[in-house]
Write a structure and sequence with these properties.
With 221 residues, the chain is an alpha/beta fold. It is built from 6 helices and 6 strands; from the N terminus they run αβαβαβαβββαα.
Amino acid sequence: MVNLLIPEPRILENNNNYTLGIWLSGGADSSLLCYLLAKHIKDNNLPYKLQPVTIPKRPTDTHYANVLEFVKKELDCADLFCTPIVYQTDNGSYESRFEELNLDNISQGKYNWIYTGINQTPPLNSINEYASELERVRSNDSLKMLFINAIVEHEGTYYEFGEIRPFFNVDKRYLANLYKQEGLFETLFPLTNSCNQLDLVDDHCGECWFCKERIWGFGKL
Protein backbone atom coordinates (compact mmCIF):
# COMPACT_ATOMS: atom_id res chain seq x y z
CA MET A 1 0.00 0.00 0.00
CA VAL A 2 1.29 3.47 -0.90
CA ASN A 3 1.30 6.29 1.66
CA LEU A 4 2.30 9.70 0.28
CA LEU A 5 2.94 10.99 3.82
CA ILE A 6 2.64 14.73 3.13
CA PRO A 7 4.37 16.60 6.02
CA GLU A 8 1.98 18.50 8.26
CA PRO A 9 1.77 22.30 7.69
CA ARG A 10 2.81 23.01 11.28
CA ILE A 11 6.13 21.22 10.64
CA LEU A 12 6.74 23.18 7.48
CA GLU A 13 5.78 26.44 9.19
CA ASN A 14 8.63 25.99 11.64
CA ASN A 15 11.01 25.97 8.69
CA ASN A 16 9.10 28.58 6.68
CA ASN A 17 9.22 26.20 3.73
CA TYR A 18 6.15 24.99 1.89
CA THR A 19 8.16 23.41 -0.91
CA LEU A 20 8.62 19.65 -1.22
CA GLY A 21 11.47 18.31 -3.31
CA ILE A 22 11.09 15.35 -5.66
CA TRP A 23 13.86 13.47 -7.44
CA LEU A 24 12.54 13.22 -10.99
CA SER A 25 14.80 11.12 -13.18
CA GLY A 26 12.22 10.56 -15.89
CA GLY A 27 12.10 6.87 -15.04
CA ALA A 28 8.85 5.00 -14.49
CA ASP A 29 8.95 5.20 -10.70
CA SER A 30 9.70 8.87 -10.08
CA SER A 31 7.38 9.91 -12.93
CA LEU A 32 4.41 8.10 -11.39
CA LEU A 33 5.25 9.53 -7.98
CA CYS A 34 5.40 13.04 -9.43
CA TYR A 35 1.92 12.62 -10.92
CA LEU A 36 0.43 11.17 -7.72
CA LEU A 37 1.92 13.90 -5.54
CA ALA A 38 0.74 16.71 -7.80
CA LYS A 39 -2.74 15.18 -8.02
CA HIS A 40 -2.97 14.75 -4.25
CA ILE A 41 -1.85 18.31 -3.57
CA LYS A 42 -4.24 19.80 -6.12
CA ASP A 43 -7.26 17.61 -5.23
CA ASN A 44 -6.90 18.46 -1.55
CA ASN A 45 -6.06 22.13 -2.09
CA LEU A 46 -2.84 21.81 -0.07
CA PRO A 47 -0.50 24.80 0.21
CA TYR A 48 2.63 23.16 -1.20
CA LYS A 49 4.85 23.53 -4.23
CA LEU A 50 6.91 20.75 -5.78
CA GLN A 51 10.59 21.26 -6.57
CA PRO A 52 11.79 18.75 -9.20
CA VAL A 53 15.47 17.81 -8.99
CA THR A 54 17.21 15.73 -11.64
CA ILE A 55 20.57 14.52 -12.89
CA PRO A 56 20.09 13.57 -16.57
CA LYS A 57 21.78 10.29 -17.47
CA ARG A 58 22.71 11.62 -20.91
CA PRO A 59 23.40 15.18 -22.15
CA THR A 60 20.40 14.98 -24.49
CA ASP A 61 18.05 13.38 -21.95
CA THR A 62 14.66 15.15 -21.87
CA HIS A 63 12.51 12.44 -20.29
CA TYR A 64 12.14 14.31 -17.00
CA ALA A 65 11.03 17.43 -18.91
CA ASN A 66 8.54 15.49 -21.01
CA VAL A 67 7.08 13.88 -17.89
CA LEU A 68 6.83 17.23 -16.14
CA GLU A 69 5.07 18.81 -19.10
CA PHE A 70 2.60 15.92 -19.24
CA VAL A 71 1.76 16.18 -15.53
CA LYS A 72 1.28 19.94 -15.75
CA LYS A 73 -1.10 19.64 -18.70
CA GLU A 74 -2.95 16.53 -17.53
CA LEU A 75 -3.69 17.99 -14.09
CA ASP A 76 -3.72 21.67 -15.09
CA CYS A 77 -1.27 22.41 -12.31
CA ALA A 78 1.64 24.32 -13.84
CA ASP A 79 1.62 26.78 -10.93
CA LEU A 80 2.28 23.94 -8.51
CA PHE A 81 5.84 23.34 -9.79
CA CYS A 82 9.04 25.29 -9.23
CA THR A 83 11.59 25.52 -12.01
CA PRO A 84 13.43 22.17 -12.14
CA ILE A 85 16.90 21.99 -10.63
CA VAL A 86 18.98 20.22 -13.27
CA TYR A 87 22.52 19.03 -12.56
CA GLN A 88 24.55 18.34 -15.68
CA THR A 89 27.77 16.35 -15.30
CA ASP A 90 30.90 17.51 -17.10
CA ASN A 91 31.34 14.31 -19.08
CA GLY A 92 27.70 13.48 -19.62
CA SER A 93 27.87 10.43 -17.38
CA TYR A 94 25.29 9.66 -14.71
CA GLU A 95 26.60 10.32 -11.20
CA SER A 96 24.58 9.60 -8.07
CA ARG A 97 25.68 12.50 -5.86
CA PHE A 98 22.28 12.71 -4.22
CA GLU A 99 23.41 13.34 -0.62
CA GLU A 100 25.75 16.16 -1.61
CA LEU A 101 23.16 17.82 -3.83
CA ASN A 102 20.46 17.53 -1.18
CA LEU A 103 22.71 19.32 1.32
CA ASP A 104 23.28 22.15 -1.14
CA ASN A 105 19.56 22.57 -1.79
CA ILE A 106 18.62 22.37 1.89
CA SER A 107 21.20 25.01 2.84
CA GLN A 108 19.82 27.28 0.10
CA GLY A 109 16.28 26.93 1.45
CA LYS A 110 14.99 25.05 -1.60
CA TYR A 111 13.35 22.31 0.51
CA ASN A 112 13.72 20.31 3.72
CA TRP A 113 11.86 17.19 2.55
CA ILE A 114 12.34 15.33 -0.68
CA TYR A 115 10.39 12.46 -2.23
CA THR A 116 12.07 9.59 -4.05
CA GLY A 117 10.58 6.73 -6.06
CA ILE A 118 12.77 4.07 -4.42
CA ASN A 119 10.97 0.73 -4.41
CA GLN A 120 11.58 -2.95 -3.78
CA THR A 121 13.68 -5.04 -6.14
CA PRO A 122 12.16 -8.16 -7.72
CA PRO A 123 12.44 -11.41 -5.76
CA LEU A 124 15.81 -13.14 -5.86
CA ASN A 125 16.45 -15.25 -8.96
CA SER A 126 13.57 -13.63 -10.89
CA ILE A 127 16.18 -11.76 -12.94
CA ASN A 128 19.64 -13.14 -13.73
CA GLU A 129 21.42 -10.33 -11.93
CA TYR A 130 20.61 -8.62 -8.66
CA ALA A 131 20.27 -4.91 -8.04
CA SER A 132 22.30 -4.82 -4.82
CA GLU A 133 25.43 -4.84 -6.98
CA LEU A 134 24.15 -1.85 -8.95
CA GLU A 135 22.06 0.20 -6.57
CA ARG A 136 23.29 0.57 -2.99
CA VAL A 137 20.11 2.37 -1.95
CA ARG A 138 17.98 -0.67 -2.88
CA SER A 139 20.25 -3.41 -1.55
CA ASN A 140 19.36 -5.84 1.24
CA ASP A 141 21.34 -3.70 3.68
CA SER A 142 19.58 -0.44 2.82
CA LEU A 143 17.01 1.19 5.05
CA LYS A 144 13.52 -0.08 4.21
CA MET A 145 11.63 2.90 5.59
CA LEU A 146 8.83 5.19 4.44
CA PHE A 147 10.29 8.27 6.11
CA ILE A 148 13.92 8.98 6.99
CA ASN A 149 14.38 12.07 9.15
CA ALA A 150 17.65 13.54 10.40
CA ILE A 151 19.53 16.63 11.45
CA VAL A 152 22.30 17.21 8.94
CA GLU A 153 25.29 19.51 9.10
CA HIS A 154 26.47 21.58 6.15
CA GLU A 155 29.32 24.09 6.41
CA GLY A 156 28.82 24.53 10.16
CA THR A 157 25.03 24.93 10.09
CA TYR A 158 22.49 22.27 11.09
CA TYR A 159 19.33 21.61 9.10
CA GLU A 160 16.37 19.29 9.45
CA PHE A 161 16.07 16.94 6.50
CA GLY A 162 13.65 14.20 5.55
CA GLU A 163 13.52 11.75 2.67
CA ILE A 164 10.10 10.26 1.94
CA ARG A 165 9.81 6.97 0.03
CA PRO A 166 6.12 6.17 -0.64
CA PHE A 167 7.02 3.14 -2.78
CA PHE A 168 9.48 1.64 -0.27
CA ASN A 169 7.42 -1.51 0.32
CA VAL A 170 6.17 -2.24 -3.23
CA ASP A 171 7.83 -3.35 -6.46
CA LYS A 172 7.39 -2.43 -10.11
CA ARG A 173 4.57 -4.89 -10.68
CA TYR A 174 2.59 -3.02 -8.06
CA LEU A 175 3.50 0.27 -9.72
CA ALA A 176 2.33 -1.11 -13.06
CA ASN A 177 -1.10 -1.66 -11.54
CA LEU A 178 -1.06 1.92 -10.21
CA TYR A 179 -0.28 3.18 -13.71
CA LYS A 180 -3.28 1.27 -15.03
CA GLN A 181 -5.59 2.37 -12.20
CA GLU A 182 -4.74 6.00 -12.92
CA GLY A 183 -5.19 5.54 -16.69
CA LEU A 184 -1.53 6.38 -17.32
CA PHE A 185 -0.16 3.17 -18.78
CA GLU A 186 -0.59 4.31 -22.38
CA THR A 187 0.07 7.99 -21.80
CA LEU A 188 2.61 8.77 -19.08
CA PHE A 189 4.48 5.45 -19.01
CA PRO A 190 5.71 5.68 -22.66
CA LEU A 191 7.32 9.03 -21.83
CA THR A 192 9.58 7.43 -19.21
CA ASN A 193 12.97 5.80 -19.64
CA SER A 194 14.73 3.43 -17.23
CA CYS A 195 17.73 2.35 -19.31
CA ASN A 196 21.20 2.68 -17.80
CA GLN A 197 23.16 2.57 -21.07
CA LEU A 198 24.70 6.02 -21.40
CA ASP A 199 25.52 5.80 -25.11
CA LEU A 200 21.88 5.57 -26.19
CA VAL A 201 20.14 8.78 -27.18
CA ASP A 202 16.46 8.02 -26.62
CA ASP A 203 15.75 4.34 -26.30
CA HIS A 204 16.07 1.24 -24.12
CA CYS A 205 18.87 -1.25 -24.72
CA GLY A 206 16.78 -4.12 -23.34
CA GLU A 207 19.89 -5.75 -21.88
CA CYS A 208 20.92 -3.79 -18.77
CA TRP A 209 19.55 -4.75 -15.37
CA PHE A 210 17.23 -1.75 -15.29
CA CYS A 211 15.66 -2.65 -18.62
CA LYS A 212 15.19 -6.23 -17.44
CA GLU A 213 13.52 -5.02 -14.24
CA ARG A 214 11.25 -2.75 -16.28
CA ILE A 215 10.17 -5.68 -18.46
CA TRP A 216 9.68 -7.84 -15.34
CA GLY A 217 7.52 -5.20 -13.69
CA PHE A 218 5.63 -3.56 -16.54
CA GLY A 219 5.68 -6.28 -19.17
CA LYS A 220 7.27 -4.01 -21.77
CA LEU A 221 9.92 -1.40 -22.33
